[in-house]
Amino acid sequence: MNDADRSEGENSVRDAVERSRSGAPAAGRVLRDRFSSDEVFQRIVAAADEEITAGSRELFFSGLAAGFAITITFLLYVSLTAATDGAPVLSALLYPIGFIYIIIGGYQLYTENTLPPVALTLERLASIPALLRNWTVVLIANFVGGIAGAAALAWGGILSPETATVATHIAEKGIQTGSLALFSKAAFAGFIVAGVVWVEYAARDTISRLVVVYLAFLSIPIGGLFHVVVSFTELMYLVFTGTGALTVGLVEFVLPVLLGNTAGGVFLVTIVNYFQTSETRLETARFEGAKRQLSPREWLFGSLVGRSYVPLVDTTASAEATEGPYQILVPVSDPSPDAGIVTLAGTIAANRPEATVTLVHVVPTYDRHSGYRGSDGDQIVAESTAELEEMRRAVESHGVTCRTSTVVTHRSFEEIFGIAERRGSDLVVMERSDNRLWASGRAERHVSELTSSIPCDVLVVDDQDFDASRVVLPVVDNPHAELNAMVARALRDELATEITLLHVVDNPERLDRGEQFLANWAVDNDLEDANRIVDDTGVVEDAIERVARRHSLVLIGATERGLLPRLIKDSLHFDVITEVDRTVVLAERPTKRSLRQRLFGRL
């Protein structure tokens, strides 16, 4: 190896090492110990990606810890004030401790942790509703933590009588301040906190972060400024000690501080920090940059009208003009041409005029591409396309059109249904054994809500060794069974599959009625040539299990509770799935939801 090759290899390795796990730069490009404004922006976007996609439970409990930690700030501030007879500087020396505890611990605090997602929203990479969700959950959690901390201080005997008197005096001083002055002082505090956010991500070492955080938050008490979580904790202390009114304090004290903190922080992020970055900042943070921003409607209304978040890489965005009247979407995280979903999707497409199959390689950001950065987008797409090539050829062997796409995202499971909705897909075919997709679904927010309002038909293949030679279809009178009938017709027409229909009645007296129902259902669903079995034992799962032993594949429809939410939570317990050594296809059709459910169904 010559010196040039060795140098290039060393630089490549060095560059790879000096990227954080999320892909944000861990060292400056020009000077390795200093970041440019664009590189700081990339680091903030990487942090914002994790925060905006975090689950509500994760945000809440992190915010709860942060809210309680603010009690440390209040405790030390009033204790030092009492010990130093109110000396302005000495009494404030330990005020930043609670904030340092929060930042080093990675807890969610309103203003400090809720400002980075503003960068995504300004770039139209995250919607305003997504930003407001993040703010709301964190703020409520901070307040709950503040309530717990204030209760401990008021009723736990922690403060001495002299210190308790000082605490009451400090809290009352804030309440007695006029609303305009509160807003102005809080706006300046928000301005300082936003500056902390920027400088914190510009620092490479913990000591620098500690110094910046300490000095910045020290300026709040010395300057007579206000932070909303501290102010709320002070108010609750007065309420618990019987010296303050909750409603008046919230309206005349906490609300002006909240508005001021928010306005000051957003102003700095927008005017000072955001516009000092170059036009290339987004290209380095997202594949294809501004080409994949949210539409104005998506930006304003989020998931109510489309996407609420733009994933890191999404080549499906360029395929909005879909081809064919029937669209089948097949998401995979580990492409394999031998997977049962290939046969199933190809067979269904072949049975539909001009149907199109789209294979989507879903790459979670914490997968093998976890070193992702914007400039790697082309390489990731090229590697993904190569991995999907054999799978694409296997689908096309059924005589249908097949397209491939790649998505790199924090929300792998949620993104699947977002793509399906945006593309107007008619059917999603998934593999249950694809553990990475299902595991990510369990960790994502809103998945239970999402899967209870699926945008299209869904088939989940529990693939043992896919064999569609003999299929049994348990029949009930619901749309999910009709979806399975469509699958059965495709298998019969394309693969000459032998179809058996099974219907279970409660007792022998209902046998004739069950046979008549099954005959009529078979005619209505173009399966009159199928074998028909009516079981009169009344135990559905046992009947399916007995009949399944004589067949190679079982088609099962959802119940009124839905299959997908229970599959994600691992709470689906069908013995026929777990105990019968047969391929099982689980089917679910979307159900209608009211306008009220769509508007208020999510947090």
UniProtKB/TrEMBL annotation:
It comes from the Archaea. SUPFAM superfamilies: Adenine nucleotide alpha hydrolases-like (SSF52402). One of its GO terms (molecular function) is formate transmembrane transporter activity. It is found in: Membrane. The chain crosses the membrane at residues 59-80, 92-110, 131-158, 178-199, 211-233. This is Formate/nitrite transporter. GO terms for cellular component: plasma membrane. Residues 1-25 are annotated as: Disordered. PANTHER family: FORMATE TRANSPORTER-RELATED (PTHR30520), INNER MEMBRANE PROTEIN YFDC (PTHR30520:SF2). Residues 328-461 form the UspA domain. Its main location: membrane. It holds the Pfam family Usp. Residues 1-21 have a biased composition (Basic and acidic residues).
